[in-house]
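Attaching the record inline, Q. Sequence:
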Amino acid sequence: MSSITHAKTPYYFVPSPSRHPAMASLGLFFVVLGAAQWINGANWGKYSLAAGMVWFLGVLFQWFSESIRESEGGQYGHKVDLSFRWSMSWFIFSEVMFFGAFFTALWWARAHSVPALGSLDNALLWPDFKAIWPSLAAGATASPAGIVEPFTTMTPFWLPTINTALLLSSGVTLTIAHHALIAGHRSKTIAFMWLTVLLGFVFLLVQGYEYFHAYQELNLKLSSGVYGSTFYILTGFHGFHVFIGMLMLLFITLRLQKGHFTSERHFGFEGAAWYWHFVDVVWLGLYTLVYWL
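Structure, as predicted:
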């Protein structure tokens, strides 16, 4: 049962004017300003970035708290539920396009750019260039100017495979929690949600160790040619999405412990679950294309 008894739900909810969008934009302005100045050598940039991030997160906390009160107060009817579902669907679609762009960049570099640079047309310009993708010849930088330090590529064993098992397991525990919520077994739902959050957290720890291993022992860096840049961009952005998804699931779990959601009304739970399953699917593609091929 939800912690608040719902009154008659309105056909459609019209929110009152809110300061939150403007306040969130102000925080993001200082985040972007600080980041741009920091990477260009201005020491004050990091303070602007930190202050803007704290401001932005504070606004989000107030904004989400207000939305939760409205939802638990019975102000969100069927139409609002539909708008949330469409919004989350389009958001996940935008994320699919986001990762699709980077997967396409990886494919283009491997299938077109590297072979083209090693063709006869470019032989006079780069006579010593080797059109070899690094994953096929570990340690080959294919850098005739010697500007890329030798490095060793990442293999699927064992850290990436362990992370694959962790994410797939988290998808199973999340599905069990969902079915338990529908069946009205709140304690079981909470237990499996905490297990899902724990699996996501362990995934991030393993990936952090993988980065340390890659940087220190394999000399694999963001500057390690197109292989290094695509490796860190794809795995790094995915790790960030895992972190965001883990936070979503954490707050959903805390709300469950407060008595929020019912077996009939729990789109907040479903939206976070959709996002987490999307993160799982992206990792499977990444695991195959980056670590195996």
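The CA atoms of residues 222 and 229 lie 5 Å apart. The chain has two domains: 8-76, 77-292.

More tomorrow.
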